[in-house]
Amino acid sequence: MAFEGGKPAILRLAVPVPLRRLFDYLPPDGVEPAGLQPGQRLWVPFGGRKLVAVLVDIVAESPLAQLKPALELVDSAPLFDERSRAFLHWAADYYQAPVGELYAAALPAALRKGKPADHWAEQWLQLTTEGKGLPETALARAPKQQALLQLLLQGGRQSRTQLKALGHSTTIIRALLDRNLAEWIPGPTVPPPITSGESAEAAPPELNEEQKEVLAAIPAAGFSASLLEGTTGSGKTEVYLRLMERVLADGRQALLLVPEIGLTPQTLRRIAARFPGHSIAALHSGLAEGERAQAWLSAAVGQADIVIGTRSAILTPLPRLGAIIVDEEHDGSFKQQDGVRYSARDLALVLGRNAAVPVLLGSATPSLESLHNALSGRYQHLRLVHRAGNARPPQIHVVPTLGQQLEEGFAPQVLRHIGETLARGEQVLVFINRRGFAPALTCDDCGWLADCPHCSSKLTLHRRQRQLRCHHCDFRQPAVNTCPQCHSRNLNALGGGTERSEDFLTHKFRDFPVIRVDRDTTASKQALDRLLEPARNGEPCLLLGTQMLAKGHHLPRVTLVVIQDADGGLFSADFRAPERTGQLLEQVAGRAGRGDLAGRVLVQSRYPEHPLLQLLLERGYGAFARQLLQDRAAAQLPPLRAMALVRAECEEPKWAEAFLAEARTQMQALAPPSPELSYLGPVPALLERKSGRFRFYVQVTAERRGVLQGLLARFCQWAEGNRNRRLRWAVDMDAQELS
Ligand code: ADP
Ligand code: ZN
Ligand code: ZN
């Protein structure tokens, strides 16, 4: 053991491997323990490999006799502060995940691979206490020094690059340094500034009474949890902006979490235009590695004032955190579906409590989880029931399609309304829940169906690319013209997708542009932005697309929304499907009539009498969701119960099933089934085979979360001893998908 200054120093590290424990090492050769602090990264040898680990603790003793030294210290200063570390450890416990994997999930790729943070370091000039005490009129006799002082007083610390760009010479800076009015501090290079491209926003709208009440109800300090249930277009975003303004005025950082597809350039521009003097870090998957590391570092050292990010942004250290806002909190993308299966929305509340700051969850269609918490008084329940400005709620009509003469899936009166709307110079949005040309290709002579060779699913025909594609594993093969089974040429594309409707609508309404928006036409966020350009300019056009169109876009000239098929989610085996369908339909409908013009929504359905659909369309998502909550209570399902899935997948279905059967036996021995605790399975996942592996799960539902936690911890201990390398297993706490 290494003894430095008489004190043994053993490094306890979080290593990114699938084992639920920490690992002990000696300090790297030549590194003084005094220079080590929890939160720093080190290179360590691990099973013949070299991995980047994070220092968690420095201890005096290890249960192991033979310790290896770590290889190299990466960071001169910790990347993770104490609160952030405690938070990650809590999350690892809750989600039954290896803590090393949580640190890895928290880091951007470049830092996860061990790139030194100094790579992006920059010197920052900030005022000393003395400097801050000066009035802006000070230094009147040295105008250049005065200009620099004013910049620092008004704009906060400035990077060396920025100062140079603004023309402040080293001599002038030197003068302030010599008078002890300013000092250099190290920090990350700011990510390239997010500029609005437009001139700073015109004066923000004056809040209406509802908005004022909501804002006033959110406490300025201390932990609080609030659900803002605000109808589409009611001005929730405006409330978020005001809350952020308050946080910034307080000298703190605001964290805004948005769904994967919500982080559009339009969103960023709106925020940048509102807060021109502040630095904004955007964290999302569309960034290059270096950009993302820069943005992450500027958040983690407290440089960025506003951090906007998707799911993983919740894991970023934010030393000056002042509030957390989760926009579209019901969105499924907040839950990670592989690796560490955390929910960023749920973790936001944990972090808010740890940091003693307000947490605001907002949605027009709250998740049943959040609604339940609000109705039971655990969260403050805030409402915005009116649309902001002059906009009124859209009128909704159901169009029964059974027995109707449909033209490519559209009822005649729907087509008539589309034509009339376009002729009036307004815009139409058509929602279709499927991309590609057709979801199935079949042979009319022998009944052959194009199946994915790796999944239990059919291949979707993409006619533009002349391909058949699997939407689950991304398998692709050239489209065929003849049946591979009987060589007939009578192949039939069944059902419709966005491509097919695009062909039809382009032909039908040839005087107007048809804009298709789905994953195939919007490879990048910029592409989506460009596509929507004509729509934003206000010309009459027809927008056609998947749920990418449902969220976040504010297109005031859209006055007609058509939902081609409302029935998809009503008959699924997944108990969450009606909730998701209701959210989607309400969000899509909410794109209509957001400006001064009235909006209308036409919903095509084969089952217009379906009670849930009627409730949704007649009384809105609020009433619909409250009904679903009652159904969930009766069926003893979440959110009234805690639920976890123990999952396993394997090329050999028998092995996965047997493994889970044994897991269930183990857990039942510890806690037998009872009215408070129930087991189901092993059962096949809804998508039984994916990417060549058969997938099963055991579902455990419990009245008390603690009981569930104990069982899962026990399962993990047992499963870590599993020697079958071809079998993969996972714990999915608060599972959202049964697929
Ligand atoms: P939400 O996020 O609830 O869908 P937004 O915040 O995007 O709604 O607001 C919808 C529209 O109403 C936007 O154009 C916004 O600028 C405008 N708006 C919001 N609040 C007000 C207000 N108090 N007065 C006038 N217009 C407002
Ligand atoms: Zn055939
Ligand atoms: Zn597949």
Could you give a short description of this structure?
The protein has 739 residues and is an alpha/beta fold.
Q: Would you write up a description of this structure?
A:
With 739 residues, the protein is of the alpha/beta class. The chain has six domains: 4-82 and 98-114, GIY-YIG endonuclease, CATH 3.40.1440; 122-187; 213-262 and 271-293 and 300-384, Rossmann fold, CATH 3.40.50.300; 399-436 and 502-602, P-loop containing nucleotide triphosphate hydrolases (Rossmann fold, 3-Layer(aba) Sandwich); 437-495, no CATH class; 642-733, 2-Layer Sandwich (Alpha-Beta Plaits), CATH 3.30.70.600. Helix content is 31%, strand content 23%. It is built from 21 helices and 32 strands. A seven-stranded parallel beta sheet has the order 13-14-12-15-16-11-17, sandwiched between helices. It has a six-stranded parallel beta sheet with strand order 18-28-27-19-26-25, sandwiched between helices. A hairpin with an 8-residue loop joins strand 3 and strand 4 (23-25). Helix 5 (143-155) crosses helix 7 (170-178), helix 8 (209-217) crosses helix 9 (236-249) and helix 20 (653-670) packs across helix 21. It is globular, with a radius of gyration of 28 Å. Mean pLDDT is 89; it is low at 195-199.
